[in-house]
Write a structure and sequence with these properties.
9 strands, 28% strand, Rossmann fold, binds adenosine-5'-triphosphate, 29% helix, binds magnesium ion
């Protein structure tokens, strides 16, 4: 098994509840994400949040990113501060971009928020655009892009900002097989670019998201109780399924995917 230790808490969701009028959407959500420390690797964290359509993933996603207040409960970051809007890089299900700005200008504004990129904003944007097959799109406006192009532009926009946390809602939908590989590899690259980088991926694509994660959180409803909660947490490191290439063919991986499906 790959040796690593889990150190301090980077994010802690405590007793999160969300209701609309008298309809309970989320109930007693508790989990924490710890800093994984691995010998000789700048190992970030990758957590998959999996659940059926309509269960409350996007609602939890908005709460985790500080964009929505829960009815009760808190999300705290490693400095014990409650999360607030802007703390995290967020890639929405509908790929939000500024419609009145060219892709390049939107990306430039994002890059300017990141001190590390000072003086090399233009070359970094051009490099990402080349990696993501978006070079010709830089001068276009968002409405001139396809759905997949908007999604890639939106991912680059958040990568440029350089936040420790990157939250992605359905990042693998609408991608062709070639782009799926590129996006997957890029996320893996991001996850090892800094020890504190933490990716939270909400996805219907269980196989792709589990293959790049170290932890799986399953959001679902429990017998007889209203609202969704974390039904199961799977530590893929313990199962020796994290950080491996070609994991999808392994028996233990296939069994884990089946276990997740059974839990949904
Ligand atoms: N503003 C709102 N008022 C009332 N109910 C809402 C509101 N926003 C979302 N909901 C309800 O919250 C529940 C969870 O929605 P959410 O968008 O989080 O689902 P999801 O798990 O992300 O689904 P999908 O996989 O289809 O994206 C749904 O039943 C939805 O109808
Ligand atoms: Mg959703």
């Amino acid at each position: 098994m790959t040796t690593c230790i889990k150190k301090e808490i980077l994010l802690k969701a405590e007793n999160i509840n969300l209701s609309y009028d008298d309809k309970i959407i989320l109930r007693d959500i508790n989990f924490c994400i710890k800093d994984i420390v691995r010998m000789d690797v700048k190992q970030g964290q990758v957590v998959s949040l999996i659940g059926r359509s309509g269960i409350g993933k996007t609602q939890l996603f908005k709460i985790l990113s500080g964009l929505q207040k829960p009815t009760s409960g808190t999300v705290k970051l490693h400095n014990n501060q409650t999360v607030k809007a802007g703390d995290m890089g967020v890639i929405f299900q509908n790929y939000y971009l500024f419609e009145w700005r060219t892709v390049y200008y939107s990306l430039l504004l994002a890059a300017k928020q990141n001190d590390v990129l000072k003086g090399k904003e233009k070359e970094t944007i051009e490099q990402y655009a080349a990696d993501f097959n978006l070079k010709d799109e830089l001068k276009k406006y968002p409405q001139q892009l396809s759905g997949g192009q908007r999604q890639r532009a939106s991912i680059i926009q958040q990568l440029l900002k350089g936040s420790d946390f990157l939250l992605l809602d359905e990042p693998f939908s609408g991608l062709d097989v070639c782009m799926l590989d590129k996006v997957t590899n890029l996320l893996l690259q991001v996850s090892t670019s800094d020890e504190l980088k933490t990716l939270i991926i909400v996805s219907h694509d269980i196989i792709t998201s589990v293959a790049i994660s170290d932890t799986v959180l399953i959001l679902g409803s429990e017998n007889g109780k209203p609202g969704a909660t974390i039904k199961k947490e799977i530590d893929l490191i313990e199962r020796d399924l994290a950080w491996k290439k070609d994991i999808k063919q392994e028996k233990a991986f296939i069994e884990t995917v089946e276990e997740i499906k059974d839990c949904l």
